[in-house]
Predict the 3D structure of the following.
Amino acid sequence: VRGKSRGGPAGLAAAVLLALATGGAVTAHAYTFHGLVSEARPRAADFSLTAHTGKRVSLRDFAGKLRLLYFGYTHCPGICPTTLAEANQALRSLPPRQSARIRLLLVSVDPARDTPERLAAYLAHFNPSFVGLTGTAEEVAKVAAAYGIYYRVVEGGSPTEYIVDHTSVIIVVDEGGFVRLLLPYGTTAKDIAEDLGHLLR
Amino acid sequence: MLALAAALAVAGGGGRAAAADPTVSVTGAWTRAMPSVVTAGEFYMVIENRGRAPDRRVGAESPACAKLEPYESHAGMAGMRGMRPAPGGAIDLPPGRVVLEPGGLHLMCTGKRIDIMAGTRVPVRLRFRDAGEVAVELAVRE
């Protein structure tokens, strides 16, 4: 039974941080999640950003789907492709009736370089169902803050070639819009698939 | 016995090995297939130094990359991830194995010149201070 949100958008960032800091909480369920369980189940903050299609979309547009929120960027050479490849492999390993109920949303922490066109070209490589989201620097900053995501451009690059350090975690939002699970960097495709399969059982 | 003879031959040659020096070997080399729009990639492998003395990777080239340099991924607070050039631009090889893997030490390919597609292979030449050059072919995984 889904309880009422205890946190709301303001408490969400704190809940994400707490789970990352403590390694999540142990649950009494028969199934033990590989990811970090969000016991408080805060309501996921809604937002409106520009999708890779050029259309404005909000988190709510994907209500009824299990949403995998990931903050990253397309120039990211290792961490993001590893995460997206593992997530993609997880989705492909699930039966279609389950994977069809999942949407991965990549929110760019590098909106200056990540245009909708670039996001479209990038995500097509992984999975045509993946959604890329970008916006103004302020829009992205607001969404990231609401989810406890940190990012910063690393000094020493050039105006066009630079690294962005960022929190790398998949935030799993259930069909009703509540944060259920955090999948930290390094969670394998098999573990992601088992956790998502359990949430969709 | 043969290995010992080879090692002696190397030592007799002044300690600087030719390309076929067997003391340093590379296995399990791979990279991930990347979208065409991405001009960088990470190369992973296991470098084994079977010798008794430390060696050092001092250079690497690939026709696929304008530059190929060691970088180290690191984890910070609040699940932060990032990476930095490895100190000194070199990889130290004490006797034993050094693992280049996602989320850790790796070779960063920048200025990518070709599409790195799954199923293809990417040639890389690694240069070691003592062991000389080692040629490697990376497998490209999805």
Summary: Confidence is low (pLDDT under 50) at residues 1-8 of chain A.
